[in-house]
Every structure is written in structure tokens, then in C-alpha cells.
User: What shape does this take?
Amino acid sequence: MLRIDFHVHTSHSFDGRISPEQLAALSKKTGVIPAITDHDGIGAHSEFRKFGVPFIPGEEIETAQGDFIGLFVNEPVKRGVDFYEALDSFRSQGAIPYAPHMFDSLRPGLAKEEYGRASDIIEVFNARSLERFDKKAEEFAKREGKPMAAGSDSHYPYEFGTTYTELNLSEDQLQPKPLLKALKNAKIVGKRTSLLKRKIAKYTGIYL
Assistant: This one.
């Protein structure tokens, strides 16, 4: 049984404040495996591998239509491209297309349903989103028969470890096809993060 947080940022994101070393320690402590999905880059992957902790190498890019994630990427995709160009880039390298905070109108989500249909996984719990946005994503995923997952969208250390997807999967099965299959019977565990606490962290520099 694995617990995976499908949406995590490190200090390699412009707004991230979790160093790869901190994230590795937190992963060991909580037993939650991170999908490292930094904004517009994959620089954290090689650094994180040094710690010998399992993770999913990902990237979150801002397409022309909204934020989009690739899981199991090995080549970065350029920011600002069309959604379908990003989709082709992810698929060409065997990555899983993942739609984060899809209907969150306060952020650049992929609000059009056609983009969700083209994705393999829908994020139905984002710890930084309002419940009504996640509910809409969950309803869409169920209607379309799409696998569902949870992401903390962590940018600060205290955000990681309480939001994850529980899957009947072993570490040696942490690959695209087995993961997609296991998501059919996955369990979502989520805890929303405090907006006030995030603002305090942003403006004081106190992240713990």
C-alpha cells in the first residue's frame, strides 16, 4: 500500500519553499511519496534522487489554457504552449497527463471539460482549493469515468503529509500503467491548508 501526494512543489518552483532535502525528510517521516511537480521545470528531480527516497518525477506547466501536470516526465515542457501541444509532449515521453485544480476559478485551471477528457487523471482534492471547486472536479471525473487523485499543492513544509491518495501498489510498481490501474480503487485523504497560515508564511518567511 502506497500513499502518494500527486502535486508537490519544491524550492525549484519560483514560489516554493521546500528544499528537496526537506521534502525527502518529510517523505520519510510521513510515509507519503511526493510527485514533484515544480512550475515549468524539472531541476529538483536529480537533486531529490540523491536522497534515495521514492518519488514521481513530474512538472506543472502553465499552458495557454491553464495549469497542466505531467507525471513521470523526463523532459521539461515549455511554458505557455497550447494545451494540446503540452499533451502531445507528455504522451510522447510516456508521461501521464494530470489535470490539477481544474475548476478553481481563482487560479488558472483547465476549466473546459474537453481538457479534462483529454487527461488521464483528474485532481479531485487540492488542499489549496475551495471545497466547491473540488466537488465540481469530482463530479466531472465520476461522470467521465476518469481516475481521481489528491494533491496538497504544497509550497511550504507544513503543507506536506496530510493530503494523499492511498493505492494498493508497491514501490516497485510505481510506474504509469500499474499506477493508473490502482487508481480505480484508490482512497482520497485530504486536509485543507489555511489561507491565513499561507499568507503569514509568505510575508514573514516562517514556513514551518
